[in-house]
Amino acid sequence: MSRPYDSMEPKVMDDDMLKAAVGEQGPQEEAGQLAKQEGILFKDVLSLQLDFQNILRIDNLWQFENLKKLQLNNNIIERIEGLTNLIHLVWLDLSFNNIEAIEGLDTLVNLEDLSLSNNRISKMDSLDALVKLQVLSLGNNQISNMMNIIYLRRFPCLRTLSLAGNPVSEAEEYKMFIYAYLPDLVYLDFRRVDEQMREMAKMKHQYSIDELKHREAQMQIKLEEEQAKQEKLEEHKMAFVEYLNGPFLFDSMYSEDVEGNKLSYLPGVRELLEAYPF
């Protein structure tokens, strides 16, 4: 379950809180003392721990541009936000909060380990940008639809998944379904995937998986075609000749040609225009 609201007043993530956290977690020897005297630059901080702070909202982290590890578990955070600048983040812990939706992660393209366990999340989505994701912890949330598992097929690096404590984990086919549709998974709910069970699951769902792979391949082809089309359009824009590879130029030239349009009413001309459009 998510963390209930504390009797303490919610705290704000201001500069004072961040400076205190950085000072406490930084080196304590002579070099650390010297750094405190001269002032700590947030851009040099690689790891930041802000758990059990009664934080309601993520804020003021834009200066931590080189941060790689961020710990925000056991707070009362309701939304994932304020992380846009943390593009080097590799490890993020937002467990034991009050988060209802996955969002605000679009720029975290280097994230490998994400923990969102013990929140109020009911759907797995908005993770598309996390192409390097290896570990995903979503235990003890409110995920109930087995189709959420299919969404995770788009993460080729995913090796560890935790969904225990969600309604979906109570389904009879839960493990077999995951073994079949996520064939590269190594650990599920803190246990290593049984290879014999994986093969049985693969055989049981073979027909559906083949159909799914076919649809995925078609979607990939369409995606690549669209990307190629957009790249070509960008090239044309850079050369100020966009739309020249289609009928746009001729259509625009003759769209207001009143006299020319009268020709289409002559016998046989309309058929010619349809057969050989500009």
Automatic annotation (TrEMBL):
InterPro entries: Cilia_flagella_integrity, Leu-rich_rpt, Leu-rich_rpt_typical-subtyp, LRR_dom_sf. One of its GO terms (cellular component) is cilium. Residues 209-236 form a coiled coil. It is found in: Cytoplasm, Cytoskeleton, Flagellum axoneme. SUPFAM superfamilies: L domain-like. Belongs to the DRC3 family. Component of the nexin-dynein regulatory complex (N-DRC) a key regulator of ciliary/flagellar motility which maintains the alignment and integrity of the distal axoneme and regulates microtubule sliding in motile axonemes. This is Dynein regulatory complex subunit 3. It comes from Mus spicilegus (Mound-building mouse).
